[in-house]
Fold:
Amino acid sequence: MTHFRLLAKQVRFRVIMWLIILCGMSVGFAPVFDDLYSTEEELRSIEATLDNPAMVALIGPLPDAAYTTAVSFSHQMLLFMALLHGIFGILIANSVGRKAEDDGLTEYLISGGVSKRTLYVNQVMLGVLINLIAFVINYAGLSLLGLESFNNEGNLLYSAGLALFGMLFYMLTLFFGALLSSADLTFGITLSILVIMFLYRAVTDVADMAYSVISPYNWLTRMYPYAENDFTWLLPFLLVAVFALAGWFLFSRRDLGGAYLKGRGDRRTRNIGSYPGLALRNMRTMIISWLAGMFVIGLTYGSIFGDLEEMISGNEMLSAAVEAGAIDDPVMFFINMILIITTVITAIPAVMIIGRVLREENTARLEVVDSGTLESRFSRTLVLVTHWILSLLVALIGMVLTTLGMHLASMNVDDIGVTLGDYMLASLNYFTAIAAAVGIGVLLLGLSNGLFKLIWLYVGYMFFVAYLGNLVELPEMLHMATPFHYLENVTVNEMDWVAAGGVFIAAVVLFAAGLFLYRKRDLG
Amino acid sequence: MSILTLENVSKHFGKVRAAENVSIDIREGEVFGFIGPNGAGKSTTIRMIIGALKETSGTIYFKGEDIKKSRRYIENISYVPGDVNLWPNLTGMEVINFFMKMRGFKDVEMRDALIEKFRLDARKKCKTYSKGNRQKVALISALLSDADLLIFDEPTTGLDPLMERVFHQEILAARDAGKSVLLSSHILSEVEKLADRIAIIREGKIIETGKLADLSHITRIEYILSSEDDLSFLEGKSYAHDFRTEGGNTHLMVDNDKVADFMSDISSKRITYLVTEPPKLEDIFMRYYEDKS
Structure:
């Protein structure tokens, strides 16, 4: 078997999965856009919604040209898809490049008679091939759909831009793999570049797009596929060849497993002197990513608030409910429904944080730290209380960020009538529902290690009842088992402080019961 | 004076009897060996002592006090499990410092000396550590403590022979400093080297307790010898077991309490080669069950 076929076989499954997801999103969403934004009116409305700093930061600046369906598609999809294509490139390049070298696979190959040149050339060729496949699928898919306003140049630019973007980060990863001392470090640096470039252009796109040009994302923006179709902005992607060559220059001149830049071996020893400090360190990345994700979800939902009336009239179930008089104010009703959905989404990180207690337990770290340590500094109580407080904080901050995102993205939409204060009250109101779910989670965890998993069923159940229960008649019993039944629908109605307080007290009682059981039960 | 006493302690998981009426007594300043094959109930017993598991019946006393009365006893026990898991994103040093903080132990010089002795690169992240290195971090952390009782569950699996010796030195040093050590293992020779007294556990039950020397009635040593004379007469002797010849050598197991008889029987022969193999745990069990039947 040639080395190239070996490489291809090694990543075959992962590449296929990625291509299905990436191309599935591009080709799959095009008809959705065609469906959503087909009339002139719908297009004007979405254009107005996206024409504000929050949305420009999120998805990029609006093109000057007429906002057709295809332009809207490329405007809303391109930068986000580029981010995903970039991750794809980084992961595959790192696994065939520096990771294989770290694991000693490269050494086997060299000792087996494969030359360094063949090795590197094949890695580069693999990157070209997989991105070429992405290009062909996207281009063929978009062309075959034959949607109105999706012109050939646009399809070509959209598909080529994404493929080149993926290839750029693939070669960049090979380059850094040759330069740096480990796969971990290479991944960290290249992913940081990918994310920082995105954030950088978010800022400069809002301030002054002239500065954005440093970021590869902006090259895609400036192509304006389906509008100006400016092919000259494919040229900067010649950097692909530059990084591939520079990577070869570095790789060919160093020992296997060597590096030009070593990671900070003598990194400063952080002083972690308490369990809360340790827990925060271990969950920091997860917490920050979820909170950032919640904010983006808020922005995304907020961006459609301008189109709510049309969307509702297009939905049979909803418009029937409006006609029957079950819903007074359909827009308010819908916003409330979105709030309930985001509440359930925010419950996910909150429950995960509680679940992390089990990771300490299952790895036996809990009992090891517990023995020999001062009871005042470490105990099962302290561990559970730490995770509980963190979980509630993340739930509250997550709700606030989500509603803040909604508010920011829908500021330009007139007559919604939900103030920032209303959003904050709603956040507090629905936060108590998350606290209740977390409380049930703690109770399950206190009963036994294995039972905790059931909390995910309960979260799913909450979602099901809250979402469907608004539209279809469900037995009262089903409603009573979710906290939403007791809470007032804030934004539609006034906040019921007694109900919210009651739900929160119930949440605290559930937690206390779980804690009591957890202190006494067998570990792991 | 006893530091730890288990009185008829049992642990049942449903129908499984992981520990059944376990009674052991560890005295102050001694190394107590706890031997048994894998799955015999060693870890279950230890995890009851440190409070990770609640005993189904029986009582555990720490310094004469029922441990159910106060959780504070745990501050005086330092424990290293058989399979050490650490926080992957922390460096070895950060983990050791964390343990010291949790224990209120401040002797930084002792820390650095131990890291040096165990040749641990403490600047690396735990996720890059091998099993042996993770074990070193846990052993160092456990030794950096004012605890009166140190518990090690299969501590040397994963350590190379050199580090095993360092560990053995540290155990003896801790004992000489007046601490008690509970050392669980399935390797008899390790426990033999260190332990003042041992308990043997099998299928959840303690089958023997005492000084290893006192247990000689249940141990056998393997002798490998060769001679210009005929040794086949040994096969018929009552103290000889598993007699076989292999590659010109004669192998046999001899009951420890009958060594004198064995020696006088071979004293008239011209022995050209003699090697002894220390008793193995399996041999003890074999012997134990033979005696029972």
